[in-house]
Design brief:
single chain; 5-stranded mixed sheet
């Protein structure tokens, strides 16, 4: 098996190849798991691949395809069953792999809802059954349809088979007129063993594990075969409802139990992460004695009103997470520490390991994060690994769990070579020799070489031609690397003079290996096409630190034109009106503002930006509006305490109605929404004659929008 390349060291071409490989692996794994009921990967292997895929897409968003495995749930229904469109999608769950992940989940919930750390917030915790998801639709109390999850939107109609399972009631008393009960079909260990004995006696195929047996039994085209299989069902959720079951998750589960469904007795309510972890540890200790397979514990916000406020991401709910049991760990020798230089000049250490199998994957590299991590310190200076540092030659414990990048978990000091020395983290760039200082508040050292640093220059060029930036057909990472190494292009502006320099004469592009007249002309045409380009793409393409695709769009909408943007960045020195306007953009902070201004200050980077702009026709960006909205096109500021929604909810609602949300009051502000504790913003708004409303006034204003 090929060694895994650390994501932070990948180039775009390498990332593209890896995403294609992962897509093939995950598609095949989904089909094997959901369609063939014969998994080819362990859960840990599958989770690691999916997390790796997501992390690569996060670093290279331009490489993400519309059919990315990150956005897929399950697999398309197999042939042989009629299809069922789920009225409420059957989503997957996000994963947690540590107590810190659970605490982070709780913190993210509180932040979204605007709840302080002292506010009680209860969750349910239930075993995560390793079986096959099933949705049961009841109308007027009668079971009318059963469907597998499929791809989340469309499943397989297995109604006839579900009717043979004794745990599934055929008729309910006291149920809402419409009730979709969701749960897991599984097979007990004892029943699985007995089934395999019978299969052997009948010279039939035996099953690898209870999950395969349960899934294969439920998805038989002949219901009589299903009837002969000892399937069971736990109910734990619901889809479409004509009336609520209860006010809480636990209350709803109890209501399902009262209707006759089997629910898991280990489901409990806990207040906060510590209670959840305690329940998780109890279940983990009892795991081998349960009599059925589980692979973790699922936590859900107990209050259904809060669940509704939290809502969903594209494939997962915000209000639930699956805390998976640990994957495998492995010990190996750390052979070397190498420093990689990224686009922003960050010096990233990578551990080169003696190859070792971890969770079914051969690992030869692991991330070491930064110099503090190597020294045994955390982000706040606290000890990690008991304060043990990491040295070349150490015997280290490597783990993957759900992490996409292998990490070093521990060091065995008893096997440390006596001659070993603490790792001396470089303070100069290994690529260009420029100083690499560590600024206050920054976790990493950064090369100051800028465009003279080949590592940074190449990575900036790759970023420039990425999908979310200029996206020039035929000019990808591979071509950029080659043209740079041949001194054909050194900065983005050189791309737009490529035809003048290498379209004619002895050194024509068409004469290079791998190129011909047609491909060369196609590239020149693609470059010419991108001379006209929207403002947001140009801003993103510059690769300014802290300015990602979302922030580039934000800046483009605010300034509207390159002329206005360039003038503002040039003039935005601290205490200037342009600086105050920049910081007034909701979502722009001091760190991003300083990074923008540094890029547009006089010097090599600014000169390169000017040379690029001279070749372009940059299209203005019009702010989105909604004609039928009372706040369309207006600039709105929120201040004080909002009591009926969080600031994040209010901002999202305003923007959806075509408003521009700002973070400070200025002469451009049209409306201030002031809750209790509004303070200086309310006073300044009054002085400027800005309209001020309270939260009720705001809600009344947008009630019909």
């Amino acid at each position: 098996m090929a060694d895994l390349v650390a994501i932070e060291t990948m180039g775009k071409a390498e990332a593209k190849r890896e995403l294609a490989r992962l897509a093939d692996l995950l598609t095949a794994a989904n089909a094997a798991y959901y369609q063939d009921d014969a998994p080819t990967l362990t859960d840990a292997e599958y989770d690691a691949l999916k997390q790796r895929n997501a992390a690569i897409e996060a670093r290279f968003p331009e490489l993400k395809h519309s059919d990315s495995p990150t956005d897929q749930v399950g697999a398309a229904p197999a042939d042989g069953f009629s299809k069922v469109a789920h009225r409420v999608r059957m989503l997957s769950l996000g994963n947690a792999f540590s107590a810190d992940d659970v605490a982070e989940f709780d913190q993210s919930i509180r932040k979204y809802l605007g709840l302080g750390s002292e506010t009680p917030l209860s969750y349910t915790a239930e075993p995560k059954i390793d079986g096959l998801s099933l949705s049961l639709r009841y109308e007027q109390g009668n079971l009318v349809q059963a469907a597998t999850r499929g791809d989340g939107a469309t499943g397989e109609n297995v109604t006839a088979n579900a009717l043979t399972i004794t745990d599934i009631p055929k008729k309910l008393d006291g149920a809402p007129d419409i009730l979709e009960v969701r749960g897991e079909v599984y097979m007990a260990h004892s029943d699985f063993a007995a089934l395999n004995v019978r299969q052997t006696e009948n010279n039939a195929k035996t099953f690898a594990n209870p999950r395969n047996a349960a899934a294969g039994s439920l998805r038989q085209l002949d219901p009589e075969i299903t009837r002969a299989r000892p399937l069971r069902f736990f109910a734990y959720a619901w889809g479409e409802l004509s009336a609520p079951l209860a006010d809480t998750q636990m209350g709803s589960i109890n209501r399902l139990k009262e209707m006759g469904f089997s629910t898991n007795d280990l489901t409990a309510v806990g207040d906060g992460p510590e209670a959840l972890i305690a329940h998780y540890e109890m279940i983990e200790q009892r795991r081998a004695t349960l009599g059925y397979d589980i692979d973790g514990v699922v936590y859900k916000v107990n209050d259904l009103t809060l669940q509704n406020r939290l809502g969903f991401r594209s494939t997962t709910p915000r209000w639930a997470i699956a805390h998976k049991f640990p994957a495998e760990l492995a010990w190996t020798r750390l052979e070397n520490i190498e420093i990689q230089v990224g686009r922003t000049g960050a010096l990233s250490p990578v551990a080169r390991l003696s190859p070792v199998t971890v969770g079914g994957v051969v690992v030869s590299n692991a991330t070491l994060h930064n110099e503090d991590y190597i020294a045994g310190r955390g982000g706040k200076g606290e000890e990690i690994r008991g304060g043990k540092d990491i040295r070349i030659g150490d015997w280290v414990q490597v783990y993957r769990a759900g992490d996409v990048i292998p990490k070093v978990a521990d060091v065995d000091l008893s096997q440390r070579p006596p001659e070993s020395q603490p790792y001396d983290f470089p303070d100069t760039c290994p690529e260009c020799g420029s100083p690499a200082p560590r600024e206050p508040g920054d976790a990493v050292r950064r090369c100051t070489g800028g465009l003279i640093c080949p590592a940074q220059a190449v990575e900036k060029l790759k970023h420039f031609v990425s999908r979310a930036a200029f996206d020039i057909e035929g000019l990808g990472a591979k071509q950029v690397e080659q043209f740079y190494s041949d001194d054909w292009i050194a900065e983005p502006a050189d791309i737009f003079t490529l035809q003048d320099r290498f379209g004619t004469g002895l050194q024509q592009l068409k004469n290079r290996e791998g190129w011909g007249e047609r491909s060369a002309n196609n590239l020149f045409a693609a470059i010419a096409e991108k001379r006209t380009i929207p403002l947001n793409r140009v801003i993103f393409s510059l690769g300014i630190r802290h300015v990602g695709e979302t922030n580039a769009n934000l800046l483009a909408r605010h300034y509207g034109s390159w002329t206005a943007f360039e003038a503002a960045m040039s003039a935005a020195s601290p205490e200037s009106e342009a600086w105050r306007d920049l910081l007034g953009i909701d979502g722009v902070g001091d760190v991003m503002a300083r990074s923008l201004c540094a890029a547009f200050a006089s010097g090599p980077e600014r000169d390169a930006i000017d040379r690029l702009a001279a070749h372009l026709s940059i299209q203005d960006i019009a702010a989105p509006t909604r004609i039928n909205s009372p706040v369309a096109g207006k600039t709105v500021v929120f201040t004080g305490t909002l009591e009926k929604m969080t600031r994040a909810e209010a901002k999202a609602r305003a923007e959806s109605l075509g408003a521009k949300v700002a973070g400070s009051i200025s002469t451009k502000t049209d409306l201030l929404v002031a809750g209790p504790g509004a303070g200086s913003k309310a006073k300044k708004a009054a002085d400027l004659g800005v309209k001020i409303v309270d939260e009720d006034g705001w809600l009344s204003m947008i009630a019909d929008a």
